[in-house]
Amino acid sequence: MLKIAFDPIYAHPLPEGHRFPMLKYELIPAQLLHEGVITVDNLFSPAQVSEENILATHDGDYWRQLRDLTLLPKEQRRIGFPLTDRLVERERRIAQGTIDGSMHALKHGVAFNVAGGTHHAGSNWGEGFCLLNDQAIAANYLLNNTLAFLILIIDLDVHQGNGTAQIFENEPRVFTFSMHGANNFPYRKERSDLDVALPDGTGDDEYLRILKETLPELIEKHRPGFIFYLSGVDVLRTDKLGKLALSADACKLRDEFVFKTALDHNIPVQVSMGGGYSPNIKDIVDAHCATFKIAGDLYF
């Protein structure tokens, strides 16, 4: 059965001006339920990730400042959200949802987190709406519990996974692959194990050509036992922050290729949804829902 981490706190209200990025987290499961793609049995509500698992990835001083709401104002501005107990709880539930999803993926091949993809959070900083790095926390959980021995993180969000790259810069058991817009946030990039920086306006054919040339070679060379996939839909040409020019059909083909490649190599995949900032919320929700539908068709 396809398992999807979702909790109402993912879409909890924020002060005016901060609500739009959260709206999709409520609409995605609602749309999937409405279309009959999933039932409530597919959804699960995660607990809050333990401090032990946070501290296996994030710096202790940084975590305590988050927990105690003592992060400096300039550091809160870097995150982009005002720091609250509710926001920290949300991040902790997202991180545990990705751990739980990883465990489901080990049994069933694939699992999702409706939220997650908080790849701008580094070991000792938050940035770009990200406080705790959910896929990094889950990757370390798998490694520390000998549930995986080599992990590939495929980050296809339009923004570089700078926090993920920094966290794993000295960890040979995790290979970080980020394919992103060259001229987009974050403007100070970290170094992934492989960065593919795309020029503004990159369209369907070029994007898919590069992905199809790159991903199979990475898997053949490194032989990962687990994949974390960040499937941001801010690559769409409709995205107001993206600077790339993919159609909705190309976004589907991207997801299908990632899943088929993983299936061909019998590698389980945990998927976190990442970014999406098209002005029309329907474009965002439809693109994210397509990722769920493709996986459902291929795996179940």
From TrEMBL:
This is Histone deacetylase. Gene3D superfamilies: Histone deacetylase domain (3.40.800.20). Belongs to the histone deacetylase family. Pfam families: Hist_deacetyl (PF00850). The keyword Transport does not apply. Residues 22-290 form the Histone deacetylase domain. Keywords: Hydrolase. SUPFAM superfamilies: Arginase/deacetylase.
